[in-house]
Here is the input.
Amino acid sequence: MPRASWADSITPYLDRTEAQIQEFTLDNGMKFIVLERHEAPIISFMTYADAGGANEPPGKTGVAHFLEHLAFKGTPRIGTTNYEAEAPLLEQLNDLHEQIRQAQADGDEARVKELQENFRAVQQQASEYVVQNEFGQIVEQYGGVGLNATTSADATRYFYSFPANKLELWMSLESERFLEPVFREFYEEQDVILEERRLGTDNSAIGSLVEEFLLTAFSVHPYRQPVIGHEADIRNLTPKDTWEFYETYYVPNNLTVAIVGDVKLSQVQDLAQTYFGRYEAGPTPPEVQDVEPPQEETRDVEVRFPSQPLYLEGYHRPARTDADNAAYELLVALLSDGRTSRLYQSLVEQEQVALNAQGLNGFPGDKFPNLLLFYAVTAPNHSLDEVQTLLRQELDQMRQQTVSRDDLERVKTQAKARLLRSLNSNSGMASLLAEYQAKTGDWHNLFREIQAIDAVTANDIRRLAQETFTPENRTIGKLLPS
Here is the structure.
């Protein structure tokens, strides 16, 4: 489809959709964004906490992700057969845990053994009151689908969909789990997360390299911290640490809810006031203060692992709110989006030095200045040096030559098509509305994306390549066979 006809066809759709979206804010500061879509009797919900790995205090990495796990454990009424009997046991477990840590610090092994036996006995008592996954069972019983949550460097998201006649049930469940969370099975979940880290980082070639790569690429900004958390930090986290993070960041003015589907705004407003209006307003959470200084020389890191060699190369770029954000997206798309991209054609198809070659934008997050990241897995009998040479040639070509109109139009079309596919899905729309509100300060910016993509020129691409792909802005990561 020619450029003019594409723009003519989608602009009215975007304008109509944007005009249909409504918003309101409760007195406690909690924001709701609502899009009525009555085509099917389904509603998708997104609760977006503007708190992720980058917000964690030093020495307490992983606490945002830990809290995400605990948010499914229930409340005084969900997840337990008798909270009055369970609650003192949970307090007793916390006291015993602190005593164990003190005895370990004192080197009193006999005392440690005695306390650990007591701890296991109380833990067994507490477990007898637990109703496993009752929150999820309720959601499933009433037709809910897609119940899940994710923690990233930038945010924590909780989402699922319900039949249209279960709006009030969602309001009740979601408000209660953040109004009165109970951190039951804290120590069992601690073991689960430690195992998750072992599998995804410590025993993973890629996970190990990425963790070291971020520690190298960022010197001060908390994007250098792993979202899963450092092992020692996970082990040392306490319910008190998690509660402090919850009280700081899960205040209503730091939560955004997006609701898309077969709903009426008036009903959403009434129910939101009834259920979420119970939340007390809290102080504005602290902003991330650390600013990454400009990189002044190439940095590199090597990790040895019994694995196929892997190459990473990253370059610093500004945050998502930068005026050139769309141009950065298209720059990476030209290099690595699909089998027609330059990296795939050069490294995989023509020279066959890599099994795969791709790029990522906004790594590990994009709320703050972040990285363009390129990676390639070497093909058998080829080296990381060969991969590096060819990758660098493609980056240099972007610096030296102006991209053709046809190539630029192709990636623009692909980018707009991806965005439109997300907007057509209730869950995708809910996710994007909440994200743009939290990250850019206004969900309306979502509907400016098409214009931003269209406005990018070939000169913009070349200018950014020249500014970005410099030796002093480069971080290299190599995974070498042990």
